[in-house]
Amino acid sequence: AETRWCSCDLHFSGCGDPRDLFVGFKRARVCCPIPRQALGRGLRRIGFEFIHRSRMSSLEEPLGLGDLPKLSINRLGRFCQSACRSTADDRSTGNYTPSNSGNNQTLFHSTSHSWHLQGQYTDSSCNGVDMEFRTLPQKVSWDLPRFVKVVEVGPRDGLQNEKNIVPTSVKIELIHKLVASGLSVVEATSFVSPRWVPQLADAKDVLEGIQHAPNVRFPVLTPNLRGFEAAVAAGAKEVAVFASASESFSKSNINCTIEESLARYRDVTSAAKKHGIRIRGYVSCVVGCPVEGAVHPSKVAYVAKELYDMGCVEISLGDTIGVGTPGRVVPMLEAVMAVVPADKLAVHFHDTYGQALANILVSLQMGIGVVDSSVSGLGGCPYAKGATGNVATEDVVYMLHGLGIETNVDLGKLMDAGDYICKHLDRPSGSKTATALCRLTA
Amino acid sequence: FQNFELEEGEHACRRRTYQRHPVSNRATPVGGNRHVLYASYLSQNQQNYRSFSASSDQERIEAANRIIHGLPRCVKIVEVGPRDGLQNEKNTVPTPVKIELIKRLVTSGLSVVEATSFVSPKWVPQLADAKDVMEVVRNITGVSFPVLTPNLKGFEAAAAAGAKEVAIFASASEAFSKSNINCSIKESLVRYNDVALAAQKREIPVRGYVSCVVGCPVEGSVPPSNVAYVAKELYDMGCYEVSLGDTIGVGTPGTVVPMLEAVMSVVPVEKLAVHFHDTYGQSLSNILVSLQMGISVVDSSVAGLGGCPYAQGASGNVATEDVVYMLNGLGIKTGVDLSKVIAAGEFICKHLGRQSGSKAATALSKVTASASKL
């Protein structure tokens, strides 16, 4: 049997949890769950497993031209300007080795090598030779954060929209599985009146039932002082408050104006400070409102600043109805970032129109380093029945890992958590990544 | 700074003036221990750059400029639903339905609609009626209807049926080429060269596709140089446009950008198109970075028609409605009326008895009138 390297690149098959993986048309045996992020080596990889047929000692070492699949056409030489003269034959038979003159720069596999080092990428086939290559319009902003914190809102924002109430034990188990995948912030529940949100009536039991892990935080929503006190009594160490950037939405959603809601939250935040409890602020309708339509960025900046000034350690900007596109999101972020430091901001996009990942990408490009998402895309959109809501954590993590950004989240374990809750809800996952990756192994 | 001033002609749909950042590394301390580094051609030493806190107006404006203001003014959408979408359907769609779909797509303003494929019905029975579809469609003026032609025989059939544009596709991955079309990359390019020559004689434009530009279901990751090589070959043999396809949808901006950089160093960016699959939900962000890189042609499929043959049940093509929604939001002209594309999508989904694969279409059909004010 052919020697197979596990995709973790450390072992022959058999190092861990063996799984059959259907790759292309062949069934292959791999030993580690996919993909391996937490190996502590910053390995960058695309989020599907494949068998390394060639010997790769470390994915961090760039591959030389000799590692390219053999192309029988001897025309790689055409890439070169006339200055570059290594024989095309050498290239095609894989005997080519980079010359030792100059920088000794080698070709990079895009997936195995962090794009951070793009600076070393000259023309692919002429290494170590000083040559003129076409200047690329390098427009893409790659000032991306190195680490992005993923805030999981599935147990709260996701489950609060479910028609059928999920039992407390299932909620607790879901939270435990999410923590096990490496997520460090999991929004556990909401202390709102069960009259409004019956799905989260067991808030106290959930909070008391969760096993607290070091360095993991469980914020809970508290719409007012009463909710806050109930949360504290149940042992909450972090609370969240939410204000709307749109007056009409504030009135229709929480029955008061923006100013009134901010006044309420000031009470909550001063009480929280007294107890030494952290507060996270949410701004909803940061791009569009189901009642008013477009929301002006200055309104979002105003509310964000108010929340920040009253003591929120992080402000999450939510595109509640998912209508945002990068064209709207960027001006909104510009306005908010003028009054709140970028490292205090998070983005909470809904995928109702399929725009969430593109919006997250531009947010990263603007310097935001915290993203809210929901496992399996739990949580529909109450304003468009049957449409999707939250962006799926698996899809977000897949993109972040593909960008070479650390998250400390193990996608395989995250998918297990998603699997668990979807099985209970008896529905397919709302995550395309999870769907694709399960189908690959089917 | 290098200014790329582009002609602002009457019908110019080019990139706006773009300020290119200095190539040298510039670390600007911003509020403490964060640095702004421009990632163009960073040297090895700059690996440990960190995120920046855009606390100054200037930096924020610059960031916004880089991100959304340098995008193409117009983007051409190439609709592949009738071909790439329908060829993956389990049940064959009747010819009149296909034709009606194509007509509805045309009325939405799409200027390029891939009509069908002249491949052997043995391999793709869903498109066995290529000739019949072509016979009707060729009379529609003002729109291009490229058809896939895998070899000279297919080309002859296409030309006989009245096709005025053809498409050829090669793989950037050797293993995929062998398993998908039963020959090596070189052999396929030789075949296509014949097609290109024949097309040239008849003055029929040829569109080239490169598949597996990021990942291959057999081999795994695909080196950007492979993609650049195949793209250049197709371009050199006369393709007026080369569409780069992420066949299994595994790409993310982290892998797409190096691939585009490689290809753009050998093929002019105006001749390139991107064809992303949404199997992992990544296509819109991939399309966005492609636009940021200067690409201005995007392939998509109405209602996200077309699954992924390598992951049964997973999604495939990106939905045209979602793409148009994003482009509209970015202020980019497409010439496409979103509501009419949605209508075309509804038509075909009703026939197929399924839900649309487009989130924007689903949302817009369910949302209340007031929320769609946006």
Tags for this model:
heterodimer, A: 442 residues, alpha/beta, TIM Barrel, 2 domains, 6-stranded parallel beta sheet, 13 helices, 31% helix, 12% strand, globular, disordered N terminus, B: 374 residues, 3-stranded parallel beta sheet, 15 strands, disordered C terminus
Quick summary:
The complex is a heterodimer of chains A (442) and B (374). Chain A is an alpha/beta fold and 442 residues long.
Q: Would you mind describing this structure in some detail?
A:
The complex is a heterodimer of chains A (442) and B (374). In chain A, helix 3 packs across helix 4 and helix 8 (297-309) packs across helix 9. The radius of gyration of chain A is 25 Å and the shape is globular. Chain A is built from 13 helices and 13 strands. Chain A has helices spanning 88-92, 154-158, 168-180, 203-209, 225-233, 247-254, 258-275, 297-309, 326-337, 356-366, 393-402, 411-425, 432-441, and strands at residues 19-23, 26-30, 149-152, 185-186, 189-190, 220-221, 238-244, 278-284, 288-289, 293-294, 314-319, 345-349, 370-373. A six-stranded parallel sheet of chain A has the order 5-6-7-8-11-12. Chain A folds into two domains: 11-134, no CATH class; 149-441, Aldolase class I (TIM Barrel), CATH 3.20.20.70. Helices cover 31% and strands 12% of the residues of chain A. The longest helix of chain A has 18 residues, at 258-275. Chain B has one domain: Aldolase class I (TIM Barrel), CATH 3.20.20. In chain B, helix 3 runs parallel beside helix 4 and helix 3 (95-107) runs antiparallel to helix 12. Chain B is globular.
Topology diagram in text:
The complex is a heterodimer of chains A (442) and B (374).
Chain A (H helix, E strand, L loop, with lengths): L18 E5 L2 E5 L57 H5 L56 E4 L1 H5 L9 H13 L4 E2 L2 E2 L12 H7 L10 E2 L3 H9 L4 E7 L2 H8 L3 H18 L2 E7 L3 E2 L3 E2 L2 H13 L4 E6 L6 H12 L7 E5 L6 H11 L3 E4 L19 H10 L8 H15 L6 H10 L1
Parallel strand pairs in A: 3-4, 3-13, 5-6, 6-7, 7-8, 8-11, 11-12
Antiparallel strand pairs in A: 1-2, 9-10
Chain B lengths: L1 E3 L13 E3 L7 E3 L3 E3 L20 H13 L6 E4 L1 H5 L9 H13 L4 E2 L2 E2 L12 H8 L9 E2 L3 H9 L5 E6 L2 H8 L3 H17 L4 E6 L3 E2 L3 E2 L2 H13 L4 E6 L6 H12 L7 E5 L6 H11 L3 E4 L19 H10 L8 H15 L6 H8 L8
Parallel strand pairs in B: 5-6, 5-15, 7-8, 8-9, 9-10, 10-13, 13-14
Antiparallel strand pairs in B: 1-2, 3-4, 11-12
